[in-house]
Design a protein that fits this description.
Blueprint lengths: L14 E5 L6 H8 L3 H12 L4 E8 L2 E10 L15 E8 L5 H18 L4 E7 L3 H9 L3 E2 L9 E7 L3
Parallel strand pairs: 4-5
Antiparallel strand pairs: 1-2, 2-3, 3-4, 5-7, 6-7
Length: 165
C-alpha cells in the first residue's frame, strides 16, 4: 500500500495500487467502459503474461477510483519516435465515473510515486484528450510539460514529467 496525500478535511485517505485482479476487478471495469466481461478478461490475461505493460487498479478507502496501464514507452504506440527512451513510461488511464476529482488526483499522484520508485522511471508520459478537462488541469498542476512535436493531434496532446534529480 502506498501512503496517500491527506484529504482537505484532514481525514486520512488510504490509497492502494495493485495489479488488476481477474475476475474481481472485471465487474468494475465493465461498468466503467461498457466492454463485455469476456473481452476484458482476455485483454487483462494477455497483458499479465507480457513484460512491457502492467495493469493496475488504484483504490481509495476500499473504493476503486481508476485503472492505470503502466507501459514501457518504447513499446507503446505514442508516435513519439526518438522522443522516448529507456526508463520512460506511459500511463493510460480509465477513471471510475463516480469517483470525485480530488480522489482521482490523489490516486494519480500516488501512481507517479509508484512509477518513479518501483519502476525506476526517468520520465512519465501521459496522452491527454483535449476534452478531458480534469486530466488537463491535473497534468499542469503536477508540473508535466507539453511534449513538442510528438503525438500532438487536434484531439490529444502528450505530456511529460521528468524525475526530479
Amino acid at each position: 500500500m502506498v501512503s496517500a496525500i491527506q484529504r482537505e478535511d484532514n481525514a486520512p485517505a488510504e490509497i492502494s495500487i495493485r495489479p488488476v485482479a481477474i475476475p474481481d476487478d472485471i465487474r468494475w471495469l465493465q461498468q466503467w467502459t461498457g466492454v463485455a466481461a469476456e473481452a476484458l478478461t482476455t485483454f487483462y490475461e494477455n497483458t499479465a503474461s507480457g513484460s512491457f505493460m502492467q495493469c493496475m487498479m488504484v483504490w481509495e478507502n476500499e473504493q476503486p477510483i481508476l485503472q492505470v496501464d503502466i507501459c514501457e514507452a518504447l513499446f507503446d504506440d505514442l508516435g513519439a519516435g526518438d522522443a522516448v527512451g529507456p526508463g520512460d513510461y506511459t500511463l493510460r488511464l480509465q477513471f471510475a465515473p463516480n469517483a470525485a476529482d480530488s480522489s482521482i488526483w490523489r490516486g494519480l499522484y500516488n501512481c507517479l510515486d509508484y512509477v518513479f520508485v518501483t519502476r525506476k522511471a526517468n520520465r512519465i508520459l501521459i496522452p491527454v484528450y483535449k476534452s478531458n478537462h480534469m486530466l488537463l488541469e491535473w497534468v499542469k498542476e503536477a508540473h508535466f510539460t507539453l511534449s513538442a512535436g510528438t503525438m500532438n493531434t487536434p484531439l490529444h496532446k502528450l505530456y511529460m514529467l521528468t524525475k526530479a534529480s
